[in-house]
Amino acid sequence: MIEFLYTSAWGAFVVMLMLQIPFLIVFFHVVNKKAFVDSEPGKTEADKYSFVRYSWIGIVLLAFFVINGFSIQYMPTIVEANAAASGDVRNVKVTAQSWSFEFSENDFKVGDTVRFLAASVDTVHSFALYHPEGNLLFTMMLVPGTSTESAIVHTFTEPGEYTIRCLEYCGIAHHAMKNKLTVL
Ligand code: CUA
Questions:
Q1: Distance from the CA of 158 to the CA of which of 54, 62, 107, 177 falls in 20 to 30 A?
Q2: Which of 124, 183, 176 is nearest to 158 (CA)?
């Protein structure tokens, strides 16, 4: 069910609608309040207000630290550091040029942790990996002329035919700049 939210266009639409709900609640609450004009000064005590304000800030801060704490393991730099520490990473070189990708190795199995070291030899391209079901796993920009390759570590957890695409406009055949990668 949750996959529907990020694999279909309607999923993105539903997420967008859901993001509107809190704003709509606040909007109608304010409209509703305004409908009853009260000429007297507010009856809420000042220090009651500050309690509400501080608990709201507390909730936001708590959410900030909890969400960051649980999601930090998915940051590319942390994934890279964990993979380097385990020592079980294969380096695969990717060369991008108008309008194709070339790999130094082509045999991938489920469970492989691969460090893609990608570089462009002519203009700005990108290296984007798509799951066999079509959702984007990652993309990285490839700028020509840099002294080090762009690197990202990915562990293949499912077999199938993955698609590589360029997501930076790079000329007349940009749309055709793609390749396949089979994971057994
Ligand atoms: Cu290469 Cu677009």
A1: 177
A2: 183
